[in-house]
Design a protein that fits this description.
With about 350 residues, this protein is α/β, with parallel strands linked by helices. Helices cover about 40% and strands about 20% of the residues. The strands form two sheets. It has a ten-stranded mixed sheet, with helices on both faces. Strands 6-7 form a two-stranded antiparallel sheet. β8, α6 and β9 form a beta-alpha-beta unit. α1 packs across α9, α7 runs parallel beside α8 and α9 packs antiparallel against α10. The protein is globular and about 60 Å long. It binds 1,4-dihydronicotinamide adenine dinucleotide (NAI), 2-OXO-4-methylpentanoic acid and magnesium ion. The site of 1,4-dihydronicotinamide adenine dinucleotide has 22 residues, from α4.
Amino acid sequence: MSRTIRLAVIPGDGIGPEVVAEAVKVLDEVAPSAGLTIEKTQFSLGATRFLSTGDVLTDDDLASISSHDAILLGAVGGVPGDPRLANANIERGLLLKLRFTLDHYVNLRPTTIYPGVDSPLSNPGEVDFVVVREGTEGPYVGNGGAIRVGTPHEIANEVSINTAYGVERVVRFAFEIAQSRPAKKLTLVHKTNVLTFAGGIWRRLVDTVGAEYPEVAVDYLHVDAATIFLVTDPARFDVIVTDNLFGDILTDLAGAISGGIGLAASGNINPDGAFPSMFEPVHGSAPDIAGKQIADPTAAILSVALLLDHLGVPDAAGTVRDAVTADIATRQADRPRTTSAVGDAIRDAVAASLAR
Ligand SMILES: NC(=O)C1=CN([C@@H]2O[C@H](COP(=O)(O)OP(=O)(O)OC[C@H]3O[C@@H](n4cnc5c(N)ncnc54)[C@H](O)[C@@H]3O)[C@@H](O)[C@H]2O)C=CC1
Ligand SMILES: CC(C)CC(=O)C(=O)O
Ligand SMILES: [Mg+2]
């Protein structure tokens, strides 16, 4: 029996539409094998839409997106510094508004170094960790302001919000994941030596919640030291739990060490299922390479694997990851392929695997 999934597709800006086209290609190939019928609604949102209509995300857009079962997003944002977008605030008005309104409190960002991948690390070892980044709080909530703007006496602030409710639930989610993994290790990353108030609540809640997970070994690193170990000893990590800002930064670094930002996938999860979760590559709209068909669509395709996990069809997710693994093993730096050629190859590998 087939299950219908209503998927909101937001290709977005820059390379977003290029990589989403490949992700959809792969999703359409694998979905029937998992008994899924994917009913897609396209949403034309982002900088391009703002420039033509002046709208970032209307109430109607939000209501319509919310009525779907899940969301697939490319990336949004125009060329940084483009004066026409000065008042648009696409990132906050669209991306963060979706994450906050749909209560995506878990931003799940796994990192694996696939065999044959072109990593800048000489000897990375077995790398397989997941960053559980808080998605609805921290310094991204817009709790700030500025006075005397543009004068030599300007003062600006941007305050990090960390609630016991918000921190506890994401920490608990991270412990659940750590408990389910063979290494059973959780590393809190923060900056408690300086951010004593924000860091304090994270440390205390990790200790409190951790008492319920005696099998999980708990570690702590300041964020600056964490960047060292991500490069020198990434195999030490299993589950990292951290706030919205540190998680944002660490996961770009994680992408870079594991073969490039074009491989890094993410899920913005509402674990309670009250709202649709949203799947997207970690990267942005990459205006520097947009329109050239040279973006790597693998991160978007691996985000489809996270979507399939979320939909409760792990075999289909595994089929996609196996196809990506096989494709990465064939890559040659001196023979680059177009975005759609990579998508075709992964789609064909999925088809071949399903035919066996
Ligand atoms: N989730 C989202 O929608 C995000 C949006 N942004 C927005 O995207 C715009 C550009 O941001 P940047 O800071 O330049 O970050 P970016 O992630 O778009 O690009 C950083 C670098 O990585 C490269 N890159 C990114 N994705 C790639 C891919 N799939 N294949 C190959 N190379 C890739 C780009 O060419 C660039 O050199 C900004 O407006 C930013 O706010 C940034 C991050 C996330
Ligand atoms: C524009 C940012 C809020 C998005 C971002 O960089 C991310 O989620 O990784
Ligand atoms: Mg980021």
